[in-house]
Every structure is written in structure tokens, then in C-alpha cells.
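no rush on this but wanted to send it before i forget. what follows is a protein written twice so to speak, once as letters and once as C-alpha cells for the fold. mainly i need to know what kind of three dimensional shape the backbone takes. thanks a lot i owe you, the record is right below.
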Amino acid sequence: MDIIENLVLGGLSAIGFSLITNAPRRAARIIGITGALSWTVFYILKNYSHMNILIANYIGAVIISALAYFFARRYRLPENIIVIPCLVNLVPGGNAYRTILYMVQNNYSGSINQGLQTFLIASFLAIGLFTTPYVAATIKRLKMLKRTGRKL
């Protein structure tokens, strides 16, 4: 039941943020599916598989990127319309808040620790978002080279 709850809430939060960013209404279903799947996979990996939060965020970002790549071409939408609302679920806002909180409380070692973790999570999200387009472009280039008969 916990997984179904996270699936629904992940989709609804992505759709809600898409309303704030004025995404087209025809993209709401796509954004909901992408947000729900990415958040649920992240949640399962983090809480049930006890995977490192960095790797769980990376895999969640790769799912967002892959689904956005697919849906953007299928429904002729810009990828950013799908990616941005779905990525909000994975952004480390709580960690950023704790970084500043510890700094205000003069707990500098805690602030540095939280700040580093926030930076790493954001970095893994960025790397995950760029993985799918890079792999897709590489595959496309290899197919083109194979078709033309040229070698790398």
C-alpha cells in the first residue's frame, strides 16, 4: 500500500508543479506518469533496497530523462516540459534547508556535511539527466556509421 501511495503522490506532485509552470494540458498525463514512476523507483531503491541516496537519485533522473526523451518525440513536446516538473520530486530541498539551518545555528561541521551531500545529490541528478541523451546520440551515431560503412 505504501508503494501505491507514493506512486499516486509522485504523479500528483509532478502534475501540480506542471500547472505552476504552465505546461500544456495535453502533457499532464505524460508528466504524471513520468513523475510517478521516477519517484516510486527512487523511493523503492532508497527505502526497500537500502541503496545509497546518490545512486537512487541518479536512477530516478535517468528514468525521467529516458521517459522524457521517448514521450517528447512521440507527442512532439519539448523535453523540458516533461523533465522540470518531474525533477522537483527528487530535488534535495530538505538537505539545502538543513545546510542553511546548521549554518545559522553555528554548527559549521553539520552545515558542511549537509552542503556536500546536497551538492552531490544535485550533481548525480544532473549526470542522470544527461545520460539518456548522450547514450541515444551515441547509438544514433553508431547506426549512421554502420549504415555508411565508415569506421570510428
Observations:
- The mean pLDDT is 94.
- Residues 97 and 111 are 10 Å apart (CA to CA).
